[in-house]
Specification:
Elements (H helix, E strand, L loop, with lengths): L4 H9 E3 L12 E4 L2 E4 L5 H10 L9 E4 L16 H17 L2 E3 L9 H7 L8 E4 L13 E4 L2 H10 L1 E4 L3 E8 L8 H12 L7 E6 L1 H5 L2 H9 L8 E3 L4 H7 L8 H11 L12 E6 L6 E3 L7 E3 L12 H14 L14 E4 L7 H11 L9 E4 L4 H9 L2 H7 L3 E2 L20 E4 L14 E4 L2 H10 L11 H5 L1
Parallel strand pairs: 3-4, 3-6, 4-5, 6-7, 9-10, 9-12, 10-11, 15-16, 15-18, 16-17, 18-19
Antiparallel strand pairs: 1-2, 2-8, 13-14
The structure holds 3-isopropylmalic acid and iron/sulfur cluster.
3-isopropylmalic acid (IPM) binds next to loops.
Length: 478
């Protein structure tokens, strides 16, 4: 029988097969890890563990560290004011020094959110295994890599051995047929997928996004989708590599070159699910039927098309009604309210989900010649310094600042409350990030997850909107 993409990559990395355990049950397989990404939040105890055991890092050359979660996006070269944040960053700096690991600190041209820098540098490659002590490591699956988020004790294991014991997974195909309509993005697709299968729907599975709509997506769009696989509870998300993948990678600093490039591409072409492979589960999505999505609740599965209204718990069965009531209370939303009438205080364009150059270009195309509504604060935070520099070369920073938005330095920023960029209690935010949990963007803050296009249009109108809700820019000067 044929094998799926995920199974092929897995099989190529098994250094010791698990099989039956002596006392019953099964032992996990031991997998080789090709790339280990490290950030300041989940690594300190792992390095402490190594020190206590007198161990070194087995493959410093396959380990790369960056500073992202605690980064203040204003004045990045000043000492970090918050003590916990400063300690985490200082600790990472000491650890990489002691263990000989390459770090991209604040102020470095290559610094950025951990899931931005792997792809940018060409470190994330098809058919590799990638891990990081961070749940959104699934992002790297867009290249046909098997990429897992791991816990801190696993970080220590990988640092020490460059291997990781892993339990077998199930496979789920997400078949996205047809073509996306203009203005509908991969962010809308993934919000629709999670709304359909639920935040636990992917538990135990590696998802493979397939179909015509996926083939037409850019690498950045694929990364957005794979990034949020974890929000469906999945262990990982993948897309089979193709010409789009190879074109993205060619010439990047760590991509193979010359003859090595040719042989790598030949091997990468084999990395696709065999025609006769069978997935444990298949989910169908009709791309042509989708419109921009927005979440109304407090988990990423609580999303609906922007054109709809806030759902009514009275129309649901008991379990859903209880969860919905609780979410609506936190979000301060009335059932039946058109989502387009919901006003926001803040718009956040950023995070490892949607802060790549194409996301910034898309938002800028909406904001050019327009202005952020008086009632709204908009933060534009490139996911990496490379994206920041590229955007500045293209003049996108000017488009945003002339529209009244704030242009910041790279980091996780308002995606989560670990740095100065936070919502005040009760503030409502349209955010291009991936999580809308209670307090995620600051205590008492309320989050609506949206695409960059919806974020930009919302900033202009002040209520949840898509670009088609905006009047033509020329009218503003008439
Ligand atoms: C801080 C880190 C462990 C966390 C994660 O694992 O995802 C963060 O990146 C997040 O997005 O919530
Ligand atoms: S941008 Fe957000 S989701 Fe991504 S790693 Fe940072 S905190 Fe996690």
């Amino acid at each position: 029988m044929g094998r799926t993409l995920a199974e092929k990559v897995w099989d190529q990395h098994v250094v010791r097969a698990g099989g039956a355990a002596p006392g019953g049950g099964t032992e996990p397989d031991l997998l080789y890890i090709d790339l280990h990404l490290v950030h300041e939040v989940t690594s300190p105890q792992a390095f402490d563990g190594l020190r206590l055991a007198g161990r070194r890092v087995r493959r410093p050359d396959l380990t790369i560290a960056t500073e992202d979660h605690n980064v203040p996006t204003l004045d990045i070269l000043a000492p970090i004011a918050d003590e916990v944040s400063r300690t985490q960053v200082d600790t990472l700096r000491r650890n990489v020094e002691e263990f000989g690991i390459r770090l991209f600190p604040m102020g470095d041209d290559n610094q950025g959110i951990v899931h931005m820098i792997g792809p940018e540098l060409g470190l994330t490659q098809p058919g590799t295994t990638v891990v990081c002590g961070d749940s959104h490591t699934s992002t790297h699956g867009a290249f046909g890599a098997l990429a897992f988020g791991i816990g801190t004790s696993e970080v220590e294991h990988v640092l020490a051995t460059q291997t990781l014991p892993l339990r077998p997974f199930k496979t789920m195909a997400i078949e996205i047929s047809g073509e996306l309509r203009p203005g509908v993005t991969s962010k809308d697709v993934i919000l629709a997928v999670i709304a359909q299968i639920g935040t636990g729907g992917g538990a135990g599975y590696v998802l493979e996004y397939r179909g015509e709509a996926v083939r037409q997506m850019s690498m950045e769009a694929r990364m957005t989708m794979c990034n949020m696989s974890i929000e469906a509870g999945a262990r990982a998300g993948m897309v089979a590599p193709d010409e789009t993948t190879f074109a993205y990678l060619e010439g990047r600093p760590h991509a193979p070159q010359g003859e090595q490039w040719d042989s790598a591409v030949a091997a990468w072409r084999e990395l696709r699910t065999d025609d006769d492979a069978v997935f444990d589960e298949v989910v169908h999505i009709d791309a042509g039927s989708l419109t921009p999505y927005v979440t109304w609740g407090t988990n990423p599965g609580q999303g609906v098309p922007l054109g709809e209204t806030v759902p009514d718990p009275a129309e649901m069965d008991d379990a859903d009604a209880v969860a919905t009531r609780k979410a609506l209370e936190y979000m301060a939303l009335e059932p039946g309210t058109p989502l387009r009438d919901v006003g926001v205080d803040v718009v956040f364009l950023g995070s490892c989900t949607n802060a790549r150059i194409e996301d910034l270009r898309a938002a800028a195309s909406v904001m050019e010649g327009r202005h952020v509504a008086d009632s709204v604060q908009m933060l534009v935070v490139p996911g990496s310094m490379r994206v920041k520099m590229q955007a500045e070369q293209e003049g996108l920073d000017k488009v945003f600042t002339e529209a009244g938005a704030e242009w910041r330095s790279a980091g996780c920023s308002m995606c989560l409350g670990m740095n100065p960029d936070q919502l005040a209690p009760g503030q409502r935010c349209a955010s291009t990030s991936n999580r809308n949990f209670e307090g995620r963007q600051g205590k008492g803050g309320r989050t609506h997850l949206v695409s960059p296009l919806v974020a930009a249009a919302t900033a202009v109108r002040g209520t949840l909107s898509s670009p088609e809700d905006l009047s033509p820019t020329t009218l503003q000067f008439a």
